[in-house]
Amino acid sequence: MKVVLGVGGGIAAYKAALLLRLFTESGHDVVPIPTEAALRFVGAPTWEALSGHPVSTDVFDRVDEVNHVHQGQTADLVVVAPATADLLARAAHGLADDLLTTTLLATRAPVLFAPAMHTEMWLNPATQANVDLLRAHGHTVLEPAVGRLTGPDSGPGRLPEPEAIHDAALRLAARDEPAAGPLAGLRVLVSAGGTREPLDPVRFLGNRSSGKQGIAVAAAARDAGADVVLVAAHLEAPVPAGVEVEHVGTAEQLRRACVRAAARADVVVMAAAVADYRPARVADAKMKKAEDGSNPVIELVRNPDVLRELVDLRNTARRRQLVVGFAAETGDDRTDPLTFGRQKLARKGCDLLAVNQVGENLVFGQDATVLTVLSAAGGPEQVLEGSKADVARGLVERIGQELAAVRA
């Protein structure tokens, strides 16, 4: 497979050299096309030595070969990493002022962009609009990783690791091949993370959910052949490559996103920690301490029961849809977490319920967990234990078994 590797002018360009090596070591022919700015970070000799191809940035180089369209026409896959804010903007609007952007216009191959920039640049509405436009054109734009950026800054905008980009790119190149796995050909909705309900412009009511388990479920469903939509509230881990993502903040935003996505889903997995309550009123300005020393009174109102609503919508529309809920339980002096889970399964009406015991040092933010899977159809209670990735794979396997039993 011929891979065109576009390299934008950012400090993360050095990681693109590692990505190039991953492609060549897996047997692919890689043609690097850096921008002029990229060559200020990693020089042409590096790209030429690693790829075995001459490096060019100018549309007037190798004019006899019509190189400015030839590379795009002959590519099987185009990967742009790092994709800077400027490069995303130029690609989104069809500008073609160097060899990389003309290649992007000339190719009919799948195109994957791996963004890398400072958080403020990534979150800028102009950048987000450009990302939406690229996706509307059929291109794949990965979510950037969250972590240390240039200097002391940290946040979303870090280039995903080369291994993650390589994996996502190969999945994209193979998307026209028949999918394999227990969820092949199915569309799966996964919610993850903790919602945050604002008190004022500064404060919010939230929870300790890191989103790691939901992220692991999304990755496991993807690996099982599914087309995955991830509705992501507050996350403390990077979004997996190769899934469609919608970011939300509050329980109501999550509800609206899930209702939309569930209408087209074969499987719904509600792993997000959705706040049960929200403040009845949100202050327009930061709440100040009362001068008389009195304590504030904050009135709370119930948030919608998203899981129950999705079950009701499924039943009303008579969809052949499997709904999986999550129950984070602590138990009390009289009742253990599993008993609370069985009660919740009956109350919510979902098909499977994954129950885990939570607390300050249990599950939230940890890399290991224990889930007990309960079935409304009376199937066996299943205990899944290990890393969240291992548990997610076990849950996806159980989902596949439930679907097979229903459709048999």
UniProtKB/TrEMBL annotation:
Please give the residue ranges the record annotates as the region Phosphopantothenoylcysteine decarboxylase. Answer: 1-187
The protein's UniProt keywords, in alphabetical order, are: Decarboxylase, Flavoprotein, FMN, Ligase, Lyase, Magnesium, Metal-binding, Multifunctional enzyme
Q: What EC number is given for this enzyme?
A: 4.1.1.36, 6.3.2.5
Pfam families, alphabetically?
DFP, Flavoprotein
- Pathway info: Cofactor biosynthesis; coenzyme A biosynthesis; CoA from (R)-pantothenate: step 3/5; Cofactor biosynthesis; coenzyme A biosynthesis; CoA from (R)-pantothenate: step 2/5
Q: Which residues of the sequence carry a binding annotation for CTP? A: 276, 286, 304-307, 326, 344, 348
Cofactor(s) essential for the protein: FMN; Mg(2+)
Is the Flavoprotein keyword given for this protein?
yes
Chain intervals for the UniProt region annotation (Phosphopantothenate--cysteine ligase): 188-408
Q: Which GO terms describe its cellular component?
A: phosphopantothenoylcysteine decarboxylase complex
Q: Which residue ranges does UniProt annotate as crossing the membrane?
A: none
What does the note accompanying the cofactor annotation read? Binds 1 FMN per subunit.
- One MF term in the entry's GO annotations: metal ion binding
Q: Which reaction does it catalyse?
A: N-[(R)-4-phosphopantothenoyl]-L-cysteine + H(+) = (R)-4'-phosphopantetheine + CO2; (R)-4'-phosphopantothenate + L-cysteine + CTP = N-[(R)-4-phosphopantothenoyl]-L-cysteine + CMP + diphosphate + H(+)
Residues in domain DNA/pantothenate metabolism flavoprotein C-terminal?
183-400
What GO biological process terms does the UniProt entry carry, in alphabetical order?
coenzyme A biosynthetic process; pantothenate catabolic process
Q: Which domain of life is it from?
A: Bacteria
Q: Which InterPro entries does the UniProt record give?
A: CoaB-like_sf, CoaBC, DNA/pantothenate-metab_flavo_C, Flavin_trans-like, Flavoprotein
Q: Which residues form a coiled coil?
A: none
Residue ranges annotated for the Flavoprotein domain, each copy included: 1-170
Q: Which HAMAP family has this protein been placed in? A: CoaBC (MF_02225)
Function, in words: Catalyzes two steps in the biosynthesis of coenzyme A. In the first step cysteine is conjugated to 4'-phosphopantothenate to form 4-phosphopantothenoylcysteine, in the latter compound is decarboxylated to form 4'-phosphopantotheine.
Question: What does the similarity note say?
Answer: In the N-terminal section; belongs to the HFCD (homo-oligomeric flavin containing Cys decarboxylase) superfamily. In the C-terminal section; belongs to the PPC synthetase family.
**Record's protein name:** Coenzyme A biosynthesis bifunctional protein CoaBC
* Gene that encodes it: coaBC
